[in-house]
Amino acid sequence: QVQLVESGGGLVQAGDSLRLSCAASLRTFNRSPMAWFRQASGKEREFVASISWNGGNTYYLDSAEGRFTISRDNAKNALYLQIYFLKPEDPAVYLCAARRPDLNPSARYRDAEDYDYWGQGTQVTVSW
After folding, report:
1. What percent of the chain has pLDDT over 90?
2. Residues near 20 by Cβ (< 8 Å), separated by ≥ 6?
3. Over the chain, what is the mean pLDDT?
4. Are 16 and 90 in contact (CB under 8 A)?
5. Dist CA 4 CA 25 (whole Å)
6. Which helix (H) or strand (E) holds 8?
7. Mean pLDDT computed over 12-40
8. Which end of the chain has fewer beta carbons closer than 10 Å to its terminal beta carbon, N or C?
9. What are the E-state strand segments in the chain?
10. d(CA 34, CA 41)
C-alpha cells in the first residue's frame, strides 16, 4: 500500500522560513517524479513545484519568485519543500504527490492529473 505522509507544517510568522517533508512508502520512489501542491481554504489545488525522478530537474509555480526549493533524497524515500520568506498568500494545506515511474529526465508535470498518489497534507498557517 502506497503512503505519502507530509510533516513540517505549522504556524509561522510572515517572513519566516519553513521546511516541509514527505515520507513515501513507495517501492518505485527512486523512479518517480514527485511534486508539491497546495490548497488554500475555498480555492482550487495549485501546483507549487515538481522534481524529476533523480532530482536533476525541478519546476516551480510561475510566481514562486525563488522562495521555494524542492529536493529529494532517494536513499531515504523522502521529498522536501523549503519555503523562504513566507507571505500572507502562502497559507494552505501542502500536499505531496507521486507519479508512476517515469525516467524522462525533463519530466515537467504541473497538473494534478499527472500524479497517481497523494498524501493527506500538512497545514501551513502564517501570522502577520
Report:
1. 87
2. 6, 7, 8, 9, 36, 80, 81, 82, 83, 94, 122, 124
3. 94
4. no
5. 6
6. none
7. 96
8. N
9. 3-7, 10-13, 18-25, 34-39, 46-51, 58-60, 68-73, 78-83, 92-98, 117-118, 122-127
10. 23
